[in-house]
Amino acid sequence: MSQSATGGSAITLYRLQACPFCERVVRKLQEYDLDYQSRFVEPMHSDRNVVKRISGKRTVPAIVDENTGVTMSESANIVEYVENTYGDGAEAASAGGDD
């Protein structure tokens, strides 16, 4: 895992400090050793305009993956996406093979 503080990573995670749902996503990104940039957002829900602009919602976590063009929120959805795109789910999908 490599968390970039200056940018340059294709994956950006919008999160709150000590948010258990955000930490669930962080653990999954670390599990697959993915580079990502954390953007900590305002604790006050109504002040999360940056998150609303990128995902249409003010909830966190939210992720933007420039590798695939995907933007999404909700920790369970993000974890499933990361598994299917970068983890065992991606390997299983590509193992389907051509017969």
Describe the structure.
There is one protein chain. The chain is of the alpha/beta class and 99 residues long. It is built from four helices and five strands; from the N terminus they run ββαβαββαα. It has a five-stranded mixed β-sheet with strand order 1-3-2-4-5, with helices on both faces. The longest helix has 12 residues, at 20-31. It is globular. 25% of the residues are buried. The mean pLDDT is 87.
Summary tags:
22% strand, 38% helix, alpha/beta, 99 residues
Q: Mean pLDDT, nearest integer? A: 87
Alpha carbon gyration radius: 14 Å
Total helical elements: 4
Largest sheet, strands/sense/barrel:
5 strands, mixed
Strand order of the largest sheet: 1-3-2-4-5
Question: Unreliable stretches, pLDDT < 50, 5 or more residues?
Answer: none
Question: What is the number of beta strands?
Answer: 5
Q: Please state the structural category.
A: alpha/beta
* Alpha-carbon distance between the two ends: 36 Å
Proportion in β-strands: 15-25%
The sequence of SSEs as H and E is EEHEHEEHH
* Helical residue percent band: 25-40%
Shape: globular
How are the SSEs placed, and which strands pair?
Elements: E1 2-4, E2 11-15, H1 20-31, E3 35-40, H2 49-55, E4 62-65, E5 70-73, H3 75-86, H4 88-94
Parallel strand pairs: 1-3, 2-3
Antiparallel strand pairs: 2-4, 4-5
Helix pairs in contact: 1-3, 3-4
